[in-house]
Structure formats: structure tokens, C-alpha cells
Design brief:
This protein is of the alpha/beta class. It has five helices and six strands. The strands form two sheets. Strands 3-4-6-5 form a four-stranded mixed β-sheet. A two-stranded parallel ribbon has the order 1-2.
Length: 195
């Protein structure tokens, strides 16, 4: 779910980054702008990723899983794509989630998502909750101001971290794949198909 490419600059800045492979199902009508020659783009669903097994060191999956009816199949695909010892950073909303007609589920509780990942060979290394009262307030009132300065967003993020009031809006899990997913299908895809 690379979307508009908001995380691309951050990921491209990671030490040792050789290639950044970005995908989004919404790219059938366009894609994020290419800002670096190391970027590769394609359009696919997270339930059927046309890439070879065990090719990635890190997968970032942010705010995608709650949109997918076959979420277990999507997690199987993520596990299939990671090399042994590879990392997954995933974010999802937590119930009660901000209403979104595109969500097929309201979100995940930590224990539920951790269990889904553990079933696929992931060890949960860290988990964090984020975006509490102040970010919920911002989202609820987002359409009212004609613009929202970056300093306001950063200030609300700082306040949320300092004073985590109310239920969190999002859950972030960092997991490392320790065992191959025995139920994962094997896919052969020619290397040329990534270009």
C-alpha cells in the first residue's frame, strides 16, 4: 500500500538500501512519482503479489490490512516475500477506529494481530500505540480548516506522545520472521518482471 509514496524518501535514506519496491492496488490509474532510480513500481493486491519468494529484507505495510477481506492470505504473502530473518513493520487501526467506508474491519487488537503474525513464523520484537486524543481531534476536524500547518500536526503528535489520553488510534508492530511459513505457496517469477 505505497499510496502517494509518503514513506519513499524515508525508506530510500536507510543505510544499505539497494532497491525500494513499491506497490499499491490503486495504481491501476497512476502511481507515486519516481524520485530515485532505485525505485521499482507495480500494481497488485497484497493477497497476490507477483514477486519471487524470500527476496526482501524489510516490508513496510502501513494502514493496508484493515482494507483486505482475506487478511490472512495477505499476511501469508508478506511472510513468503521476506528472507529468513527479514523484518515487517506493520501499522493498523485499533478498535474503536475512526469510521472509514473502505475498511472491511474496524481494526486489530495487539494480541489478535500478534497471534496472526506468530502463526506465520514471526517473532514480535516491539509494539507501540500511537495517535490518541489529539490526533483523533485533528481527524474529526480535518475538513474545517482550509489548511493545516505542519507545526500543528507535529505539535499534536508531541502532545499525544507526552499525554496519551483516550484510546489509541493506531497500533504498530515490528516483527522478524524466524521460521518459514510452511503453508505458503511457492511462486516463480522471472526477475525481469520487476522492471
Amino acid at each position: 500500500g505505497a499510496g502517494e509514496g509518503s514513506y519513499s524518501p524515508l525508506l530510500l535514506g536507510l543505510p544499505g538500501m539497494e532497491f525500494l519496491v513499491e506497490s499499491d492496488i490503486g495504481w491501476s490509474s497512476g502511481r507515486a512519482p519516481k524520485i530515485d532510480p532505485r525505485q521499482l513500481f507495480f500494481c497488485s493486491s497484497l493477497t497476490h503479489v507477483p514477486l519471487p519468494n524470500q527476496k526482501f529484507d524489510l516490508i513496510l505495510c502501513t494502514e493496508v490490512l484493515e482494507h483486505i477481506q482475506e487478511h490472512e492470505q495477505a499476511l501469508d504473502e508478506i511472510a513468503r516475500l521476506l528472507i529468513p530473518g527479514g523484518w515487517l513493520l506493520i501499522t493498523v487501526p485499533t478498535p474503536p477506529a475512526v469510521p472509514d467506508p473502505n475498511h472491511v474491519r474496524e481494526g486489530y487488537r495487539r494480541a489478535e494481530l500478534a497471534a496472526l503474525l506468530s502463526q506465520r513464523g514471526f517473532q514480535i520484537v516491539d509494539s507501540r500505540f500511537c495517535m490518541h486524543f489529539f490526533f483523533r481531534f485533528l481527524l474529526k476536524n480535518w475538513s474545517r480548516p482550509p489548511w493545516c500547518p505542519r507545526i500543528l500536526i507535529r505539535s499534536l503528535a508531541y502532545l499525544d506522545r507526552l499525554l496519551p489520553i483516550g484510546p489509541p488510534m493506531d497500533l504498530m508492530l515490528l516483527g522478524r520472521i524466524t521460521a518459514p511459513n510452511k503453508g505458503a505457496k511457492t511462486i516463480s517469477v522471472p526477475e525481469k518482471s520487476l522492471a
